[in-house]
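Researcher: Quick test of sequence recovery. Tokens follow.
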């Protein structure tokens, strides 16, 4: 039962956002910065965000050589360049908004391990550099000397390509700082608020929220922004995306660890970074695509043990012990372009961030704001 006071002051909001991940929070930040008088309410189904934003690897990255080449093949040069730019500008927005210290920003570089089957990609370094030179000057270069420095196994045909401006963030700190920031702008975050469905009337959107204690409550909003990423099909079944589980582990601290930075392997299907003197390693969705196209957060033991073997092979002289393992859920589609669009008079969708939502999110928030203010 709703009280008079609740009905009068707490059930209606100017803008409702479904999903308290990095995109929902970034959209709230952009909207609140530009419209200080708006009431903005985020509905997040879990006490902590429960998707990808607090469970990722923390690469602040724009695209490795083979990823950009694959994007060029699928989407053409101009769209591929635009995507790299969106990631780059998105990261600048988040850094300026929150400050580097608050997000644990570390300008360690990114590297891609190029193996025999990828060797032809090396011939395209100059053309990719030319494509992004106006915002990422001298982006890619060969960096084979790092194999020995990092203790990485180098097979006869292996090379390392360096991505100059790639960096790392501390995912937990970033999300904490972003939450604090939007709260400071007056945004409300309702957690434990699972949106079951929403319907539009001529004037507004009605949002049915499931609450563990009280049952269902219907909120209303003038505008709704759906930022539920991989879980969007539960609300909007026709959205062109599918879920992908990402699994990682982090090791216990390793004495004398020399590996520093981000390493992309096999078109980004494997990813390794240091977190201080620990290693965080993850990926291998391509090891079992069918099982990994899921919104289930359970770990796949086969993939976890494959990841361990893979890391032993990659860094043969480093002994490590796994400390913690977890999974998160991403959203993918035929191309890597996010879906950011108005789908009806009162509803905007901002989903499908793939494996690059950290860098993208700042700019996605700005695009949502522009669409909403149009
Ligand atoms: C293991 C792993 C490693 C990754 N590594 C990186 C990386 O290094 N760099 C990078 O840039 N990206 C990485 N990513 C991807 C990145 O984390 C995502 O692109 C990004 O977090 C997407 O943000 P989001 O806000 O769109 O989605 P999410 O973080 O998934 O947020 C969606 C939110 O919506 C909520 N929600 C869903 N449905 C409802 C509902 N019906 N009602 C209320 N709330 C709802 C969910 O609980 C969730 O909190 C990784 C992801 C994973 C899983």
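Model:
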């Amino acid at each position: 039962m709703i009280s008079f006071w609740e009905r009068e002051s707490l059930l209606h909001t100017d803008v409702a956002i479904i999903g308290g991940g990095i995109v929902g929070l970034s959209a709230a930040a952009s909207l609140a910065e530009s419209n200080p008088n708006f009431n903005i309410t985020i509905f997040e189904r879990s006490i902590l965000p429960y998707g990808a934003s607090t469970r990722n690897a923390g690469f602040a990255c724009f695209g490795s050589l083979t990823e950009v080449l694959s994007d060029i093949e699928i989407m053409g040069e101009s769209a591929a360049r635009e995507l790299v730019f969106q990631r780059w500008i998105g990261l600048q927005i988040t850094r300026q908004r929150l400050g580097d210290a608050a997000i644990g920003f570390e300008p360690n570089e990114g590297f891609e391990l190029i193996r025999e089957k990828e060797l032809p990609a090396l011939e395209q370094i100059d053309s990719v550099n030319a494509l992004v030179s106006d915002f990422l000057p001298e982006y890619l270069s060969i960096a084979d000397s790092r194999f020995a420095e990092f203790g990485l196994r180098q097979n006869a045909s292996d090379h390392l390509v360096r991505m100059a401006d790639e960096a790392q963030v501390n995912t937990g700190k970033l999300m904490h700082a972003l939450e604090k920031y939007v709260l400071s702008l007056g945004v409300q975050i309702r957690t434990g608020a699972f949106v079951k469905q929403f319907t539009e009337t001529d004037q507004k959107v009605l949002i049915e929220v499931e609450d563990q204690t009280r049952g269902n409550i219907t909120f209303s909003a003038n505008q709704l922004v759906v930022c539920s990423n991989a879980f969007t099909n539960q609300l909007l079944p026709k959205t062109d995306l599918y879920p992908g589980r990402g699994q990682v582990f982090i090791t216990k601290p390793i004495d004398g660890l020399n590996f520093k930075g981000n390493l992309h392997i096999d078109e980004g299907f494997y990813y390794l970074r240091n977190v201080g003197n620990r290693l965080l390693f993850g990926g291998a969705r391509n090891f079992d695509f069918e099982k990994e196209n899921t919104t289930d957060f359970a770990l796949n033991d086969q993939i976890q043990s494959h990841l361990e073997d893979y890391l032993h092979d990659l860094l043969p002289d480093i002994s490590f012990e796994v400390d913690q393992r977890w999974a998160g859920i991403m959203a993918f589609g035929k191309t890597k372009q996010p879906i950011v669009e108005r789908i009806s008079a009162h509803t905007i969708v901002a989903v499908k961030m793939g494996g690059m939502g950290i860098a993208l999110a700042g700019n996605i928030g700005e695009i949502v704001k522009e669409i909403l203010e149009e």
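DSSP finds ten helices and 18 strands in the chain.
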